[in-house]
What we know:
Helix 2 (about 30-40) runs parallel beside helix 4 (about 60-65). The protein is elongated. Strand 5 (about 95-100), helix 6 and strand 6 form a beta-alpha-beta unit. The longest helix is centred in the middle third of the chain and has 14 residues, at about 200-210. The protein has two domains: about 10-25 and about 265-390, Lyase, Ornithine Decarboxylase, Chain A, domain 1, CATH 2.40.37; about 40-255, Alanine racemase (TIM Barrel). It is α/β, with parallel strands linked by helices. It has 14 helices and 18 strands. The protein has helices at about 10-20, 30-40, 40-45, 60-65, 80-85, 105-115, 120-130, 165-175, 200-210, 235-250, 260, 295-300, 385-390, 395-405; strands spanning about 25-30, 50, 55, 75, 95-100, 115-120, 135-145, 165, 185-190, 220-225, 250-255, 265-280, 280-285, 315-320, 330-335, 345, 365-370, 375-380.
Amino acid sequence: MWPCSLPDGQRDALDRALRECRTPAYLFDARAAVRCAALLEPLRREAGLRVLYAVKALPLGAMAAALAPALDGFAVSSRNEAELARRHLRPGQTLHLTSPGLRADDTPRIGALCSHVAFNSLGQAARLAGALPPGCSPGLRVNPRCSSLDDPRYDPCRPASRLGEPVEVVEELLRRRPDRLGPLRGVHFHVSFAAAGYEPVLSALERVEPLLERWPGGLDWINLGGGVLPARVSRWDDLRAAVLRLRSRGLEVFHEPGKGLVGECGRLVTSVVDRFTRDGTEILVLDTSVAHHPEVFEYGRAPALANEDDEGRHRVLLSGASCLAGDLFGEYRFDRVPEVGERLVFTGVGAYSLVKANRFNGIPLPEVWLLEAGGGARCLGRDGPGDFLRRWDGDNESECLREVRGR
């Protein structure tokens, strides 16, 4: 009933979670994430690449703890993410932060938590670098201005991008005012999104690398960003050569995949709660919603379904439970139309699902289960009516406001 491929007889934990979870439920497979991280191990060992997990993809402490032994640290985008990641940081590992919305009142704490902070702009650096303690290495995020994406919503190099200082501005400063760059000890760039290879990263590096040798006082590190799916990469030689070249200049070289490590490690388990036909279309209503899988609505595409039969005789429209007309997962084929009460499993929901999920229409958030690296399965938490009321009830709102005013 649950078509999937698991090595070493690890299917028992998945089967147990699928049986025992109360739908809707997320099942996050730590073993799958660790296997994906292992694809980068040869580059860590042979070229000295330092791999960070970008926490924004799945800010789940249990997943961070499972991945930590296979990594060199974490990459974060806010104080809250930094606080979470710091709890799972191991000796010798690093914690990097970059954010276009860095707040002055958060910066001292961020500096205490993080080993590296890449400022998003020269103005941000001028205002906030002085708040970092001596042990935190300041850097600058650079926009290489080389787009590789067709959809501007996900393109950090889009026109009028707010993400990073334009490379030509940095080039001009190196000619006229190098003193403004001297205090910054590293460079960060990020250009990719769900790429199947490192070509976009290497093209961006061609724009950025000439800056490195001209940097006043030299640089200590460079962060190549993330946005690449290691499981889909077929060629590693060019990246290995680039890392070795940068390392020969005395630079630490960082790479921070997020979705690339956890994207395929998640499942969303749901139950059929209604079945009917409208205008000749068979429709199944599920007890979940695109509010639990926001990228379905963002991208307008159907997520993978473990139960689908590509050659099935029946085409069925899967719908969410909310009143949003567009709460639709798409059309799927079945040899037999599932009945009310049966469970369906969406796959590939490990990234940007849990952190973006919401309780629209009061639909409970999914339970969260972890398939542990050691082979077990456990429920990490479940939502209920009390959680909805505590979040939105007027008395609770007043309590929150009192807390804010008391700071």
